[in-house]
Amino acid sequence: MQPSQPKNLWGGRFTGKADAGFAEFNQSFSFDRRLFAADVRGGIAHCEALVHAGVLTDAEGEQIRSALGKILELGESDQKYFEELSSEDVHSFVEARLVEMIGDLGGKLHAGRSRNDQVATDLRLWLRDEIDRVQTNLRATQHSLIEFAEAHHGVVIPGYTHLQRAQPILLAHWCLAYFEMLARDRERLDDVRKRVNVLPLGSAALAGTSYAIDREAVARALGFDSVSRNSLDAVSDRDFAIEFLSTASLVMMHLSRLAEDVVLYSTSEFGFFELSDAVATGSSLMPQKKNPDSMELVRGKSGRVFGHLVSLLTTMKGLPLAYNKDMQEDKEALFDAVDTVNACLSVTNTVLQNVRVNDAVARTAATGGYANATELADYLVRKGVPFREAHETVGRIVTQAIERGIQLNELPLDDLKSASELIEEDVFEALSLESTVATKAQIGGTAPERVRAELQAAKDRL
Ligand code: ARG
User: 20 to 30 Å CA-CA from 370: which of 4, 122, 226, 443?
Assistant: First the structure.
């Protein structure tokens, strides 16, 4: 069945029909129907404001309100409701459905409002709820990081700089690094939400409304914290959406780095992790393969979200005030960013519950590679040697050890002593993996007692 064609919203000025190709190009209804519930809610609040302003009688207001309520029900219960009526966008759709249900009275609702304020209002209402959903998912991922850390509290892995083994760290410390990143993302999202939660409705296209609409009351009815102070700004900026995309990009950047670590640690070259079958795939050709597709996709999808950020910035940068149709491009960017971030958080969460840790391999890696060289320099500093000199001395010791193909603590005491008289028997204890980790006991360090306290603090913060 062909969808029926409602009348244009701008009948009077036009005698001709829109070109079919242009109409399809111009429409946003195929995607902005996602704003349907927000649009109806905004309509109900506006209807109440018009009653209050004396533009609608109580009876008219009641009729419109109850019709909008029915429209919401019909739309939420059956997708076909959207297919039966072709519309340019969700705002014209809801209005057409209203007129279809209650006749000319439906046309009274648009006094003092424009689709420009509707779209800005809908988008803010929708994004506000979505931010809350992203927050919940971020929190769940933080929770999984803590669980993973607690389950492997004793595990030591090499910490890297330049992807060269640097110093041993606790795996739990690595987990908490990502916990902190996501904690900042959550703070940023909280902050974005404040600027999202401002009501544009009542801007009436661009100049403000001449009806006695109590915008503060509309804001309260829709749960907005405040009303926009300038009608031109309210209908024409999308900085709130860009701010969200930028925060979402940071979330994706963090998830992508976590993904990259997991991918690396799951290679046979590293071998610290093995992903369970639940979050890995095989190869159609090579029988031995186990591929970390889950994490690769999280890493890969960061590109889409960064792209949406740049795309919306670019769309907005040259626009004259106030509304321009270019801005219709904001929605697909925002929708896809929200979906991508939520999906990536959810998969990351599942992966964290499906990583097997190879304790012994990680320990061997953390013990080798001279990752305790800094500890030897610190040992000399504790004996009064200036750090620069200690660094130089240990550098020479490392060269000797490399030449002989052994670790620092495998060098005989006499050889160590010939590099520095201050080195004594207690050096071997100092160079042990346990001691190397345990000395990093200040705030922010990887010592087990410190990490245990941070884990507790992390749980309290959740
Ligand atoms: N579909 C439009 C958008 O998404 C709604 C606003 C249209 N306003 C207008 N004057 N054409 O931006």
Answer: 443
Indicate if 294 belongs to the active site: no
Q: Which two tokens stand for residue 282?
A: 């095989």
Q: Which of 281, 248, 275 is nearest to 263 (CA)?
A: 275
Residue 288: predicted pLDDT: 86
* 432: pLDDT strictly greater than 80: yes
Residue closest via CA to ligand 1's atom 12 equals: 328
> Looking at this protein, which amino acid is placed at residue 457?
A
Q: Helix and strand tally (H, E) in the chain?
A: 20, 6
Alpha-carbon distance of 296 to 281, in angstroms, equals 11
The DSSP-derived string for 245-312 is: HHHHHHHHHHHHHHHHHHHHHTSTTT-SEEE-GGG-B--SS-TT--B-HHHHHHHHHHHHHHHHHHHH
- Provide the token pair at 4: 């029926």
User: What residues flank ligand 1, with Cβ below 6 Å?
Assistant: 28, 32, 89, 115-116, 119, 323, 325, 327-328
Using only the alpha carbons of the chain, give its radius of gyration.
Answer: 31
Read off the DSSP letter of residue 86.
Answer: -
β strands within 305-422, DSSP E: 355-357
Closest by alpha carbon to 96, among 201, 26, 5, 33?
A: 5
The pLDDT tens digits for 104-144 are 999 999 999 999 999 999 999 999 999 999 999 999 999 99
Average pLDDT, the chain: 96
Dist CA 297 CA 282 (whole Å): 15
Give the distance (Å) from ligand 1 centre to CA of residue 115: 6
pLDDT at 3: 72
**Partners of 158 in the β-ladder:** 168
- Out of 22, 116, 118, 321, give the residue to mutate to test ligand 1, the one with the largest number of ligand atoms within 8 Å of its CB: 116
Percent of the chain with pLDDT over 70: 99
Total residues found in the chain within this entry: 462
- Counting residues of the chain whose pLDDT is more than 90, the rounded percentage is 93
Residue 93: predicted pLDDT:
97
From the list 30, 66, 283, 346, the catalytic residue is 283
Given a cut of 80, is residue 335 above it in pLDDT?
A: yes
Sign of CA dihedral 413, 419, 424, 426: negative
Closest C-alpha residue for ligand 1 atom 2: 328
